[in-house]
Specification:
Layout (H helix, E strand, L loop, with lengths): L3 E4 L2 E4 L4 E7 L9 E6 L6 E6 L5 E3 L7 E6 L4 E6 L8 E7 H6 L10 E6 L1
Parallel strand pairs: 2-10
Antiparallel strand pairs: 1-3, 3-8, 4-5, 4-9, 5-6, 7-8, 9-10
């Protein structure tokens, strides 16, 4: 079973930036569609960004223009550069294989995530 480990979160002021990393354990990392998700307190987990094997990206409207998803296949690593952070970005951030994430019915399909806290 492929596992993903998120890191890079922290506490920042509104307008500041963070860069999240996600390291995968699978040998097929370079061939799959990867995605970032987040879960704010009291809310459901939501998709925020996707990157295909070929580098095509898609974003949830509230983060478009502020967040950038990228990948380094040689390092089995996914990144999320978050600029101009806002208090509403406060959440636990997770990465996953898009197909696994969308078909998941168990918390065992997710890692611990990394906490991002943005204060005004």
């Amino acid at each position: 079973q492929v596992q993903y480990s998120e890191s890079g979160g922290g506490s920042v002021q509104a307008g500041e930036s963070l860069r999240l990393s996600c390291v995968g354990s699978g040998s097929d990392f370079s061939t799959i569609v990867m995605a970032w998700y987040r879960q704010a307190p009291g809310k459901q987990r939501e998709w925020i960004a996707t990157i295909t094997a070929g580098g095509t990206t898609h974003y949830l409207s509230p983060v478009k223009g502020r967040f950038t998803i990228s990948r380094d296949n040689a390092k089995n690593t996914l990144y999320l550069q978050m600029n101009n952070l806002k208090p509403e970005d406060t959440a636990v951030y997770y990465c996953n294989d898009l197909l696994i994430a969308e078909g998941s019915s168990s918390d065992h399909s997710w890692g611990q995530g990394t906490q991002v806290t943005v204060s005004s």
